[in-house]
Each structure stands twice: as C-alpha cells, then as structure tokens.
C-alpha cells in the first residue's frame, strides 16, 4: 500500500508488487524472452500494474465484477492528469453545493450502512455519489473519480476492517476522515501517482477483463503466469466489498451476493457450496479430479462425518470437492493460453477445515500435470497456524509458491 497506483485501493493482494517486478525481470534475464504475463485471478491488479511499470504486456482476469472494475480503473493511470483534476474538482464543488437528500436518514434502517456511518459522514458521501452520477460521462476519467469515492469509504467510517477486508461493525476506530477532505486528499495522491508513472516511463500495456476463468477464455500465448488464487480456506471474496457495493446500490444486502457476485467466483467458501446443490459422488468421479480421486474422496468423507459433530455443520466436504474441480477446470483453460515451456507461479496456502488437512499445493500441482504441464515444485515461504492459542484446530499449515513448468 506504499507504491504508486497500487495504493489506490486496499485489497488482499496475496503478494507484493516488488516481488512481481523481480520475477518478471528474472524471467526475462533467464530466458532472454520478453515476458507476456497472464494473471487469471487479478484481484485489484497488482501483477498487471507491475507489468505496466516494466513496459511488459499482460492479461488479467477477475471474476468478481466489482473488483474487476476497480482493477480496470487502476489501469487508467495514463489518463490526462489535467482532465482528472478538472473532473475531481467539479465533483467536489458540485457535492459541496447541493443539499442533502431529504430522505437521507433512511440509510440508518440498513443493517450495514447504518452501523458504519454517522449521519454527517453518510450525507457527505451521498453528495459525492450524487455529484458523480450527475456529472459523469463515458470518458475514462470518470472511472477514476468513481474509484476515488469507492476507495475512501472505509476511511470515512468509524467501524473497523478486518485483515481480509471484512467490515467489523462492532469494532470502532478513532481516526475517521471527513469525506470531502478524504476525496480531495485522494485526488492529490492519485494525481501525483499518475505523474510518477508517466515520468518513470511506464507503459499502458495490460488488458484486464471481468471473466470467470473456469470458463474458456483466449489471449495470445503467454509465457509467464504470476497469480494467487483463492485458498480452500472458507474466505468469502464475494463479501469483501459488500459495503462498497451497497453504497453504490449494486446490492441491497448479503443475500444479493449470491446472484450478483458468486456465480463467477471459484467455490472456496462453504456459503458458496451448499450440500443440496452438489452431488459429492458425481464431483469426485469427474475425470478432471482423477489424479487426486482417492485422496479427495477420503478427505471429503471425513469432513462429511465430522461436520455432524459440529454446531455449524458447515459444508466443507462439498466446498473442497467444488474448489478442486473448479481449479482443475481452470488449469485446462490456462494450458490453452500458456506457451510450451512457460513458467507459472501460484502463491497458495493449504487449509484444515474442521482440523482435516487439505494438501492444496500438492493437489493443485497434480491437477496441473494432468492438464498438460510438465513439472511442479513447492517453495515454502511461511508457516501458519503454529501458535495454537484461540485456534479452532492445531494442524500446522503453510503458505508458499507453487512453481509449475511446461
Ligand atoms: C488472492 S486474490 C488475488 C489478489 C491479487 N493478487 C491482487 O493483486 O489483488 C484471488 C482473486 O481471485 C478472484 N476469483 C475468484 N474466483 C474467480 C474466478 N472464477 N475467475 C477469476 N477470478 C476469480 C477473487 O475474486 C480474488 O480477487
């Protein structure tokens, strides 16, 4: 969150932009080839923005519609700074000049927005939104204005945000920004980052799309892939931007995530893999899972038994089956877009739902081989869950880089 353009929106990136830069340069040095980078889980666009900073062509795909729009907006760092400044000032002046919506206090009835904002803050944010809605055109600069407003929503709320971006309505924080000041501060920061990018010779050569990578997609052949897919750890990406989507009126509540966001996301959380919708036996016998069939059958069976002893009865058994089937399908699509002899890195961690270990990196490696890649190895970066206090289980976990070649 310190680097220009990368810092425009806080998201759980999975790795640093500096590391991506070093991997792209290393690849080019080692092979003598100009890298063409693929990022199938682009999130907020760390890999693609890094590639732009090195004048390297890249493709990014992101299944979450709201996050994909943010990544695409960050890509607009080469928009005219003057136009951006003008649009930003017009938005602020308009917002300051209009009256508050007479029905504004209705937001209090909303479970999340009502808990997250004081009337004064929400009223100013709403005026910024109405100014954007009034003034915006299809010119790219307005996507940057929208990103500015989206990116200040957390800082203008008195409630906390958990490490992985879930809102914590019951935890308050002391530093809360005034929306107009936050907007104008962000405008200056974005302008200075845009100037930095242009004067450092960045080149806008990334293409980012909203795309579910479990479905076929086509790019030119790429030779380097740098990514961090969702982990099989019950994290709900659909929920990561619930506050922001509610603010913009894209959803009315948690229930809407199911229709608006989840359909194009990997099934990596139990809310997204209801047992009544998934025939476990059919999933396990899918030929795409054949390399790990016996092991995944055993793990999912254990999970199905243990869940009946737990209060939540979470459907981790179907979650694990759906997750690996989704990734097996993704490997097939990636194989089609990666050149022979290419290099791939997935930053990934294992998991242990209800204390049953799921060896994610090994299973993902085996599935990649089945899709036609030639070898894999795992480089452990850190241990996780080794301090047992307050943990739900005591299985030691790790996180690292899954390297795949072929
Ligand atoms: C660990 S995050 C990647 C973050 C990224 N490195 C960044 O710079 O922000 C994984 C991403 O995969 C996305 N994702 C999940 N399912 C997907 C799918 N089926 N197709 C494409 N992207 C998906 C999630 O929405 C999430 O943004």
Automatic annotation (TrEMBL):
Record InterPro entries: SAM-dependent_MTases_sf (IPR029063)
Top-level division of the source organism's lineage: Bacteria
The entry's protein name is Site-specific DNA-methyltransferase
Q: Which organism is it from?
A: Rosenbergiella australiborealis
